[in-house]
Amino acid sequence: MLLIATPRRDELESLRTALTGQWRIVSCTNPGELVAMNLAGPCFAVLVDAEFLHRLAGENDAAAEASEPCGSSEAGLHALWKRFPNASVVIMAGSGDMREVVATVKKGADNYLTYPIHPDEVRYVLESLEAADRMEGELSYLRDSFWGEDVKRLTRTESPAMREVLAKAKAAAPTSALILLTGESGTGKSALAKLIHTHSMRKDKPFVAVHCGAIPETLVESELFGHEKGAFTGAVRRKLGKFEIAHGGTIFLDEVGTLSMAAQVKLLQVLQEKTFHRVGGETDIHTDARVIAAANQDLKAMVREGRFREDLYYRLNVFPLEIPPLRERKEDIPLLVSGFLERLSGEYGKGVYGATPETLDALAQYDWPGNVRELENLVERAYILSGSRMLTLEHFPAEFHPAHGSYASQAQRIAGTGMTLAEAREHAKDALEKQYLHDVLTLHHGRINKTAAHAGITTRQLNKLMTRHGLDKNAFK
User: Fold this and answer.
1) Which ranges carry the Sigma-54 factor interaction domain (predicted)?
2) Domain 152-324 has what CATH class?
3) Domain topology for 2-142
4) 162 close to 277: Cβ distance less than 8 angstroms
5) 410-453, pLDDT tens digit by residue?
6) What angle in degrees, to the nearest 10, is found between the helix axes of 459-469 and 421-443?
């Protein structure tokens, strides 16, 4: 359908004649009609008189029917888009108005026609719009099929916030833009970084992941940029740095907020100049590695506190993507559980096909401090324990059981098992110990040294207790 809006009735009839048989044409001859128009189907293009745009700027009948223009053509263009969001816009005007018409095209109108309108000219313009529409349709198809079949289960979501994140990731993946992933530990920043690389033009080149928080401060520069033989004690041979290994591909800098100020200066230099030199070397080395950085800390707050360089923050924050925590996308829990079970069944061959409604309800009640990683680890544990086709609550820790959290109901449940007081006391001590370790590991993002110091025990004692209670430090990172 074409909508033609012009006060020039002779031009309107000429256009009708030229386009008969090709388009269904709807027309109006004053701005008031255009504002009030309610089309019965999709509109491909609006051919609109330039004067109408001025009168549309107010988007109301009084403004539209005013004898003098009441607003800018740009405001009128926005009003037109609001009325017909999917339509292309072609401006019609006399030759004396060309300066303003060209300016309007620069503001977003698709094309223009000059009075008197020649039939061949309008056909050419419409054919060009159709060709552009077909191309956009093909690009849309490619975008829809963007994620390969092997990763579609990882990108299924019912969360509007997560859909927005994935849409932005699709848009950024084919580019070389620097991406900053933010969000709590365990939300899936590493998995998203790999997906972006896999669907980029660099997919056949290396993907190099660097956990910045796990590198001793004295070795950060050597790890990232390499070193020459003899550069320092223990440097018995030349070592290539991660930026050099990732040349042409992607380097993923996880927990970038843990870098020292000295390392931040070096990283800023590489991002700005695309060159570096190995420790102990003098030769400049060019890098074409695409950088994806991730942080589970608030880098803006760190900048305010003087713990993170402001210039580095803005250099990293070219294309920010914030991944929501699992507690804010609980509608995805059934999809995530299903995806994890598909993977586990493929790896281990045991047929566990889902979780009972009661189990999914219980999982939805939990706050998930460890986010998706914690859910994945618990599902894997439940899968291993399961002897049936469905996961049930008995395969999950006590905190997921309906009675958990109520001392009276817990006491009643324990008493019903026939435990003695001593046994019940030991049971309660174990539950409290596990919950305490869970909370402290969450607080310190799974870091063993800090967790042990907080708990007032040795790292060896902590590891033994974690093994006893089935706690994995990776679930808290």
Assistant:
1) 155-384
2) alpha beta
3) Rossmann fold (3.40.50)
4) no
5) 555 555 556 677 776 776 777 778 888 888 888 888 889 888 88
6) 120
